[in-house]
Design brief:
Helices cover 27% and strands 0% of the residues. By secondary structure, the protein is an all-alpha fold. The longest helix has 10 residues. The model has no long low-confidence stretch (mean pLDDT 76). It has 2 domains: 38 residues, no CATH class; 62 residues, no CATH class. GO terms for molecular function: arylsulfatase activity. It holds the Pfam family Sulfatase. This is Sulfatase.
């Protein structure tokens, strides 16, 4: 049986697409460059929305902001869209899916502790 590849989607905040080493602007990003050299880098992407919350919701759901209802920052994404979007597609293909980092998909604190040691609200005082 062929082993499925690992899939990592890295999304940064307030980061122009030409601000990584391969774009030739003199920015040194050796770790991102290493990851990109062995994977796929989308160099000609167009965002469905200039604000981060609607754009992230679109990436994760495959739907435009007018469909998700997230048309500006401060609007919550209905998490049922996740089952229909990227996480659902990967889950149906047999992948375990995880979201790590700044989600910024809701306008309020929706952190729900699981009691598991790997679940932290923030990196403050985190020491693995």
């Amino acid at each position: 049986m062929t082993r499925k590849p690992n899939v990592i989607l890295i999304s940064t905040d307030q980061h122009r697409g030409d601000c990584i080493g391969p774009e030739g602007r003199g920015v040194k990003t050796p770790n991102i460059d290493k990851i990109g050299a062995s994977g796929v880098r989308f160099s000609k992407c167009i965002t469905p929305h200039p604000m981060c919350q609607p754009a992230r919701a679109s990436i994760l759901t495959g739907k435009l902001p007018y469909t998700t209802g997230v048309r500006d920052n401060g609007r919550d994404l209905d998490y049922s869209f996740g089952a229909q979007g990227l996480a659902g597609i990967f889950g149906d293909a047999g992948y375990d899916t995880h979201f790590i980092g700044k989600a910024h998909l809701s306008s309020h604190d929706t952190f729900a502790p699981t009691g598991k040691p790997e679940c932290h609200k923030s990196a403050k005082d985190y020491d693995p």
